[in-house]
Amino acid sequence: MLRNLYEADHDVFRNSVVKFIEQDITPHRERWDESGLIDSDRRHDRRDGR
Question: Which domain holds residue 31?
Answer without folding.
Answer: 25-50
